């Protein structure tokens, strides 16, 4: 016997019927009567419409260039692979450390960030909008030159790749044709923290040519708790469902970045290669709960499955990437351009529960809760202009792209995907040998969720609700503040 286990977009991985190898996405137990199936499907559609908005708001796992590091690099939109003159070279191009003008202590703070995600026309023309306001990731670093010739540079860097903690709850009520009432309540709590700790070495092998490498020890903690309650009625029949999906894991790894920089004053070029991540160790736990999916008394028994699993292994992968950057111009104005290609990452399990049996009904197939990830290859690029507007004031403006690596891939970490474009501008002020950087960045992107009809392939609906794709709009604003000493 193969049980049809509900899937309501809180992490799709319930793989059931281990002998058959099928992945089921039906809404209620296979023996439930068709009328109740239809009502439950409509209820689930409400949750599916909201979940894609919630999931990507918490973290930009599918984007590699959204966050910029270093005061100057932030205003240049990351277009500094071919010209890095401060300690942010440890991240962008380690070879630039050997050619950098400023190698003191650097602190880059994105002191304010507001991000909003809006799903359009979800219920009867109404939009669902969620927003987050807080402190964005930052960078701290410093470097020293070797005591002899000064050709060697040693640097350290601390980078916050992600830091998000959100709790969101939404309620939707509708009465589509043929149904008395449909209600869905969904809440998602997400806590993500990813930090990179880097040590860099660089050498000026020629007066105008430097090479370098940075080794990053990476740490990642990711926890998500999804709770779903749905209820509805049709022609005197009722259906309710309670679902809990929770997981948290930590993972530790290593990434190496190699770089070379050629600098001839008015012209500079840089090349970088970032290795795929090497997983060192990781662990996690999962909770799976399905309770009380039934029709009126006399119907089939509910599916009851409760499992708490600890001591599981975890995995998190970063792709190979290759970057190229150029800089050119005169004394007052400089033009910058950079591009970086990221390889794909084949589908893998981030964390999985292993097989377990539900408590009811008896004879049901084993269940397995799996969270997987997959990435498509992307090519990001940025263009920027730097102009000296006064003796101690330099202005910057830039445009950069950040394509989603989940476009066309199959990931349980992010449902909706969009390509982000960012416009940044600001200025750098030199005061008594120190640098103060002020600026802002505005990002935008549009996409849509997948056609939700695909979630319910084995259900005949009369009347059929609208399960089509939901347009999603992404907007962000960031205030940039940086210091160099």
Please state the overall shape, judged from the principal axes of the Cα atoms. elongated
- Mean pLDDT across the residues is 75
CATH topology: Porin
Helix-strand pattern: HHHEEEEEEEEEEEEEEEEEEE
Biggest sheet: strand arrangement: 1-3-4-5-6-7-8-11-12-15-16-17-18-19
Total count of strands: 19
SS summary, helix count: 3
Describe the structure.
By secondary structure, this protein is mainly β. The protein has a single domain (34-484), classed as Porin, CATH 2.40.160.60. It is 7% helix and 55% strand. It has three helices and 19 strands. A 14-stranded antiparallel barrel has the order 1-3-4-5-6-7-8-11-12-15-16-17-18-19. A two-stranded antiparallel ribbon has the order 13-14. The longest helix has 25 residues, at 34-58. It is elongated. 47% of the residues are buried. The model is unreliable at 1-41, 52-59 and 452-465 (pLDDT under 50).
